[in-house]
Amino acid sequence: MQFEKKPLIVALAGNPNSGKTTLFNNLTGSNQHVGNYPGVTVEKKEGILNFKGHQIKLIDLPGTYSLSAYSIEEVITRNFIIEERPDVVVNIVDASNIERNLYMTTQLLELRVPVIIALNMSDMAQNRGIITDEKLLGHLLGVTVVSTVGHKRKGMDDLLQAMLDTVNNVHGFNPSSVNYGKEFEEELGRLTETIDQTKQLPKDYLPRWIALKLLEEDHEVDKLVRDLDSSEQIFVLAEEGRERIKKILGEDPSQVISDCRYGFISGACSEAIRLVGEHRHDISDKIDLALIHPVLGLPIFGFLMWLMFNLTFTFGEKPMEWIEAGIGMLTDFLTANLPAGMLTSLIVDGIIGGVGGVLVFLPNIVLLFLVIALLEDTGYMARAAFVMDRVMHKIGLHGKSFIPMLIGFGCSVPAYMGSRILEDKTDRLVTLHITTFMSCGARLPVYILICGAFWPDKAGNVVFSIYALGILTAVLVARVLRQVRFRGMSAPFIMELPPYRIPTLRSLIIHMWERSWLYLRKAGTIILGISVIMWFLMTFPQKQIFDRDYDGLIKAASTAQIQGEITAEEMEAQILDYENARSAEKIRDSFAGRLGHFIEPVIKPLGFDWRLGIAIISGFAAKEVVVSTMGTIYGVGETDEDSSTLRNSLSADPHYSKLIAYAFLVFVLLYVPCMAAMTVFLHESGSWKELAFQVIYTTGLAWLMAFIVYQGGRLLGLD
Asked: Which residues have a Cβ under 8 Å from the Cβ of 170 and sit 6 or more positions away?
């Protein structure tokens, strides 16, 4: 057979929350590849498995409720099935909500591709008193129906065998068709015949399906037909057909199509499905009485989110310390064993420092993704979006927008990735543009440093005010963007609440690893490159003649210690001060220092000088770099945010005040996130235009807000 010579291509299609991804993970395990479909931000997942000597390539298509063209996921799924022509399409159907799920099945049958129905979560359906006759349902639909329980790996071998049987046409593939009624079918037949005569359509597109989509006013199909020589005639016939259907039936063709499909489904289900007693309320319904309660739902959600972050950072603290210690040991080893010079500085300060800055946060990222995967797989994350929908709609956002915003408090990189849960492109873009105002973990070291220097007794209150300001700014900006740039209401919130499930360890690990690997791959490489660039800018040009004779001062300190004028500890302190002063002077005359002086006139109205300018520029690479940059500028050996030496240097500097410090915090909060996050932003938005808008408007807003804080504070006499 042909499929023995090459992998059998099997596409998995189904509604969200039907257990499709769980089934995919169970079948493929670790043999997965995650990427994106060309030109779009929708995730593409593929996996390879072997069954009875045959290699099977599984394609996990995006979860959709239909094959219309209302979302990019629907278009991708539909185009893949039509243009790639997989050997088999496995339609995953939630057995406990079968009538809703079979709507997509009717559309798959219209594409005339070999279809298998995997009646998933059949155990839950039986617990609810729903009994399905799989053989009878398969006979009525003209397809093979297999009962599965994805999270328990039940029915997997039967499903794989059905794939092979379908390719071999063992049972014969004879899909049933929906009859749309005499008047509609006449218009459909007339249009189909005209399309069939063009002979210009790609061979994989069926004339009847094209005609149906034209009557349904599918814009994607309109584009396809527009390229045909007889397009004008076809469009005229389609318009006349739509008008006749409206006149005769009194409804739009799209409504007629929908009603007929559901009627077909209802007829099949009435024959093949029976209820044992009453449709019982199960444990999910009882839990939802509290979790999505109009009053209790929001506090419970808030507590669970608080618990998520506390667990993430509590359990991640020790692994972070271990990684920091390991990086420190590696740095000391390389410094001691490599010859002093530019190459060693590049390796130690540029490469090791850059990669280490990412690896240190890996425990938090892994734990955060583990908890999120747990909430998703149990079914609670859908409830969280449902609970927040009413609040989010008041500011022009989708209920699911709250999820990436919440993740943004941990890191902007996975937060931007999280925006892909929004089906509507406009909702996704608005969410991307405001998620940046959620204070990520990388900003926290800057907050701790500045607040510890200027408000040592009230640091917690000041940090809280910055977090609150970020949330308030996100709310206001969302309203403005909705009214000015992204007009219109957000998409209606239609999400089924899946039954609660006990997630499998295998599924949790796969989800956690996929996201963690993307974080390492996308964020780590970017920060590595930017760190090397910052190292270069702060190292060159090399100054040969200094304003002070540091070598002479160091020699004098050594002589004084030998002669007993100072102690060895005092000598070491003086030498360290001289070395730090030498480094600070190098930075002042480096490319970075010159750049700081160049932008000083722009930031001077905010109360900032060239030194804060360098820190801001370094923050474009990563916000953590602001702290180390300030430490290097001040010539302080310890550059951690807990360094009392650096805090004392800042608080004692006569050029700075509490007002300037708060304005600086506001600027750090609002201006564009790190380069790694911006790279992911470009990837998720799919537009250089949106990236440019994000960079310009966030930086401009940061400047304006810092200006208002500083100049307003001066007018009020707070400086």
From this structure: none
Q: Is pLDDT at 12 greater than 90 in this prediction? A: yes
| Amino acid at site 126 | Q
Q: Cβ distance 647 to 446 under 8 Å?
A: no
Q: Output b/e per residue, 115-144; b: 16+ Cβ within 10 A.
A: bbbbbbbbbbbeebebebebeebbbbbebb
Tell me what percent of the residues of the chain surpass a pLDDT of 90. Answer: 21
Residue 637 has pLDDT above 70, yes or no: no
How far, in Å, CA of 578 to CA of 676, rounded?
35
CA distance between the termini of the chain: 83
Instruction: Show Cβ contacts of residue 75 under 8 Å, excluding neighbours closer than 6 positions.
Output: 69, 220
- Residue 200 and residue 238 in contact, taking contact as beta carbons nearer than 8 Å: no
209: left (phi over 0), alpha (psi -120 to 50) or beta: alpha
User: pLDDT, tens digit, for every residue of 676-688?
Assistant: 788 888 888 888 9
Count of Cβ atoms closer than 10 Å to residue 468 Cβ: 11
- Work out the mean pLDDT of the chain and round it to a whole number: 80
SS3 content of the chain, % helix, strand, coil (to 5): 65, 5, 25
Q: Is the pLDDT of residue 426 over 60?
A: yes
CB-CB neighbours of 179 under 10 Å: 11
Position of tokens 């559901």?
A: 262
Find tokens 């493929």 and name the residue. Answer: 28
pLDDT at position 554, please?
66
Question: Is 278's pLDDT higher than 60?
Answer: no
| Neighbour count for residue 604 (Cβ, 10 Å) | 12
pLDDT in tens, 78-108: 999 998 899 999 999 999 888 889 999 999 9
Strand partners, 35: 44
Q: List, in sequence order, every beta strand (DSSP E) within 603-714.
A: none
Neighbouring residues of 302: CB distance < 8 A, sequence distance ≥ 6 = none
| Phi, psi (rounded to 5 degrees) for 554 | -65, -40
Q: C-alpha 126: how far from its chain's center?
A: 36
Work out the angle between the directed axes of helices 253-272 and 207-215 (0-180°, nearest 10).
120
- 228 to each of 75, 78, 194, 201, 447, how far by Cα in Å? 21, 21, 12, 8, 61
Query: CA nearest 624: which of 411, 414, 438, 418?
Result: 411
Tell me whether strands 8-14 and 54-60 are parallel, antiparallel or unpaired: parallel
Q: Which amino acid is at 145?
A: V
Q: How far apart are CA 441 and CA 409, in angstroms?
A: 6
pLDDT tens-digit map of 432-457: 999 999 888 778 778 888 888 899 88
For 209, what's the count of Cα atoms within 13 Å in the CB-facing half-sphere? 23
pLDDT above 80: residue 557: no
The CA distance from 128 to 192, in Å, is: 43
User: Strand 32-36 relative to strand 43-51: parallel, antiparallel, unpaired?
Assistant: antiparallel
Could you give the CA distance from residue 67 to residue 54 in angstroms, rounded to a whole number? 30
Two tokens at 698?
A: 């966030």
One-letter amino acid of 14? G
| Confidence at 279, pLDDT banded by 50, 70, 90 | very low
Stated length of the chain: 719
Complete DSSP assignment for 114-174? -EEEEEESHHHHHHTTEEE-HHHHHHHHTSEEEE-BGGGTBTHHHHHHHHHHHHTTSS---
**Cα 508 to Cα 149, 365, 505, distances in angstroms:** 17, 14, 5
Amino acid in the structure at residue 423? E
Distance CA 597, CA 603 (A): 10
